[in-house]
């Protein structure tokens, strides 16, 4: 049963960004880090996905810790032969990040994700919102409002089936970044990352395998109040470990990203960024799994002090292969 597609007005987001940036450029942007958005489905989050960080590394011995919260709605309900995919939920993602400067332009980071999956309360409001805009509703009318379901079966073989809500830990990620080049107003860095199978795979919170990835990020301050970013990379995914005879084809993936940060004031940045990833799965017959995904995120970063800042971000699906939308709040501390 296919989920409905819809169109997302991307151009107005960039036009609003340009108008605000050009009319309120009162501060200094510098090479600020891109925001930690992300709008992938819970199934995709079991695998290493696009991760891009700023091109600069923390100084030796410096530590930066952050706690991110993201709340979003996901609805996919499709069947192709004996292959089925159901993701009907609202998700509160919690992400703890820690970065440590190693010196000589190098930096170590570790990420511990967790997710509280539950039925939620937004289905009727989202249906009204999408109907008002005249866009698709992902097929939400095929199930009762505000119910929970999370199960995937491939060719009749269950991958996992979860009907109960709850909080679970995901797979830990660790990365190493190295600044390669620095020039007047810009820099280029490379980063390698590994994902360890620490999450609960039977509840859809971990792949059960090891993933590795690598990528590059470049940033350049076009003006003192406006910085542009671009990034590209890839990930190599370990196959899920399940019962004998279970088989799933997992693609290695490529991703690309671009974004901009503009200073609205001495303490506030306006952020807009886009991200795309090639298809992780193939030949499942489920369109939401077999296609790649793309998203756009926009929001604000406010620095309360030199050591404390917060990001407020919204991410929107552009591909019908990700969560409908999600709101992100992340607080970062510098030590």
Please describe what this structure looks like.
It is a single chain. This protein has helices spanning 10-23, 42-45, 123-133, 287-290; strands at 63-80, 83-103, 106-118, 149-154, 157-162, 166-169, 173-183, 186-195, 211-223, 226-237, 253-263, 268-277, 293-303, 308-317, 325-334. It is globular. The chain has one domain (10-334): Beta Barrel (Porin), CATH 2.40.160. The model is unreliable at 1-9 (pLDDT under 50). It is built from 4 helices and 15 strands. The chain has a 12-stranded antiparallel β-barrel.
What descriptive keywords fit this protein?
4 helices, Porin, mainly beta, disordered N terminus, 12-stranded antiparallel β-barrel, 335 residues
Classify the fold: give the CATH topology.
Porin
- Annotated CATH homologous superfamily: monomeric porin ompg
Q: Supply the number of helical segments.
A: 4
Q: Structural class given helices, strands, pairing?
A: mainly beta
Note the run of SSEs as H and E: HHEEEHEEEEEEEEEHEEE
Radius of gyration: 20 Å
Number of domains: 1
As residue ranges, the low-confidence spans are 1-9
Estimate the strand proportion: over 45%
Separation of termini?
Answer: 51 Å
Task: Please sum up the structure shown.
The chain is globular.
Write the layout of secondary structure elements.
Layout: H1 10-23, H2 42-45, E1 63-80, E2 83-103, E3 106-118, H3 123-133, E4 149-154, E5 157-162, E6 166-169, E7 173-183, E8 186-195, E9 211-223, E10 226-237, E11 253-263, E12 268-277, H4 287-290, E13 293-303, E14 308-317, E15 325-334
Antiparallel strand pairs: 1-2, 1-15, 2-3, 2-4, 3-6, 3-7, 4-5, 7-8, 8-9, 9-10, 10-11, 11-12, 12-13, 13-14, 14-15
């Amino acid at each position: 049963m296919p989920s409905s597609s819809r169109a997302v007005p991307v151009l107005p987001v960039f036009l609003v960004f340009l108008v605000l940036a050009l009319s309120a450029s009162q501060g200094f942007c510098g090479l600020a880090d891109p925001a930690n958005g992300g709008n992938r489905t819970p199934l995709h989050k079991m695998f290493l996905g696009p991760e891009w960080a700023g091109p600069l590394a923390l100084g030796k011995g410096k530590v930066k810790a952050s706690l991110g919260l993201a709340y979003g709605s996901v609805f996919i309900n499709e069947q192709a032969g004996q292959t089925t995919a159901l993701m009907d939920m609202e998700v509160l993602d919690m992400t703890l990040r820690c970065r440590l400067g190693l010196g000589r332009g190098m930096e170590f980071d570790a990420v511990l994700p967790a997710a509280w999956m539950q039925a939620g309360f937004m289905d009727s409001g989202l249906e009204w919102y999408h109907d008002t805009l005249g866009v698709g509703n992902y097929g939400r009318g095929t199930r009762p409002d505000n119910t929970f379901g999370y199960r995937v079966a491939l060719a009749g073989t269950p991958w996992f089936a979860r009907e109960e809500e709850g909080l679970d830990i995901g797979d830990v990620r660790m990365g190493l970044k190295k600044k390669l080049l620095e020039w007047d107003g810009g820099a280029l860095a490379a980063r390698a990352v590994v994902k360890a199978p620490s999450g609960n795979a039977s509840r859809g919170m971990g792949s059960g395998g090891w993933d590795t990835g690598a990528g590059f990020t470049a940033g350049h301050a076009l003006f003192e109040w406006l910085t542009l970013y671009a990034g590209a990379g890839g990930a190599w995914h370990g196959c899920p470990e399940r019962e004998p005879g279970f088989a799933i084809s997992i693609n290695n993936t490529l991703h690309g990203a671009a974004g901009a940060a503009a200073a609205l004031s001495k303490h506030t940045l306006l952020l807009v960024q886009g991200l795309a990833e090639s298809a992780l799965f193939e030949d499942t017959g489920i369109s939401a799994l077999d296609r790649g995904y793309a998203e756009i995120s926009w929001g604000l970063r406010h620095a309360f002090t030199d050591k404390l800042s917060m990001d407020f971000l919204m991410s929107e699906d552009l591909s019908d292969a990700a969560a409908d939308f999600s709101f992100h709040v992340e607080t970062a501390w510098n030590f």
